[in-house]
């Protein structure tokens, strides 16, 4: 049986003092989610989603999650707490929340810039994904405008951008660029 997920949207509003603020609003669950993008409206059909394909649906027990993790996730992807791992079910700002609703200050993940689920980031991601989910091998305005904006903050010697998907890819690219630039192949890696 298909269960509907809760739908949230990022909203901008002006408070009584005239200050622009953001909030996450819960929308009425619906068979379709409508995304307005300028003159275009895109409808996402949610009726055929598998129950486990959305994060806001009824959750598995912690033991079920552990069993599936052991079955499907490689052993090199280790949990931080082996004896009694924390099951994180949602996050907001600098906090993550477990299945009991307990809050944990997130000092590990890459959220130090704006926090988890920042309304501006959620809105920008939704708008871009609903417009075009692409990579840098196609010609599209947003990637060149993003590169121009980033490079406007950099010294003149840093004049091009390389967009990658992860920190691992960025490190790999940095090593290869350094090897090409210096002609050296040796690498020093430090681990604690």
UniProtKB/TrEMBL annotation:
Spell out the Pfam families in the cross-references. Aminotran_3
Q: Which domain of life is it from?
A: Eukaryota
The UniProt entry, under InterPro entries, shows: Aminotrans_3, PyrdxlP-dep_Trfase, PyrdxlP-dep_Trfase_major, PyrdxlP-dep_Trfase_small
**Which keywords are on file for this protein?**
Pyridoxal phosphate
Q: Does the keyword Electron transport apply?
A: no
Q: Which GO terms describe its cellular component?
A: mitochondrion
Molecular functions per Gene Ontology? pyridoxal phosphate binding; transaminase activity
Homology family: Belongs to the class-III pyridoxal-phosphate-dependent aminotransferase family.
- Protein name listed in UniProt: Aminotransferase class-III
